[in-house]
Amino acid sequence: MTVFLLILSVVSGVFLGKYFGKKEKLAKNLLILSAGFLITICLNEVFPQVYTAETGASLGIFVIAGVLLQMILEALTKGFEHGHFHHHSEHNILPAALMVGLFIHAFIEGIPLANDEHGLSPYLWGIVFHNLPISFILGAFLFNRKDESRSAPSYPSLMIVALFALASPMGMLLGNYFDPDLQPYFLAIVGGIFLHISSVIIFESNKNHNIDWLKIGLVILGVSLALLMHLFHDHSH
Known about the structure:
Elements: H1 2-20, H2 24-51, H3 60-77, H4 95-110, H5 122-143, H6 146-149, H7 155-175, H8 183-203, H9 213-232
Helix pairs in contact: 1-5, 1-7, 2-5, 2-8, 2-9, 3-4, 3-8, 4-7
């Protein structure tokens, strides 16, 4: 079920992006909603697991490492995770670089799922909600280009989608071979990634620094959904 949801979130997002990708406002709103959800999952689910782990290591260093890693990956993806696809042309973002950046990002997020004791956990849903808007933007970028609009989707575009869809399940598979005691370290890294992405989306300056009530409302809705999931999810071990 976990693998199915991970793949479905990417395929569904790409499909929506292919047919509704020109509606940039929709993509932006999906990102803001997911950011509110993601930062709440990060603070209510990921970080408590990290900082209650019985380890003598300073796991905060790994959270910072996750933030720095995401900053490096964005040099490859050019801010796709933040919805900045409309700032780029095919000449300044290469499909190969995009593929590598998104794959590493999703692969690392999948590793902690191997030792997730709660099945359909809020952490899993955080990844799913996070995948949808990114996949939407990916589908809009790959399948609404001039060279794609006049013919069937190209092999590189389909390969990028397939690798992104399989990245988290592959990370989950690899996670089964790691010592379960390493779980807090991987969660700390992913927590840093989540924190960076969600905070950038939420705190990006509005046009002319005016109050964007729609943005605030979408963040509150995302936070509320995550809190409801947190309250009704069984956290017993």
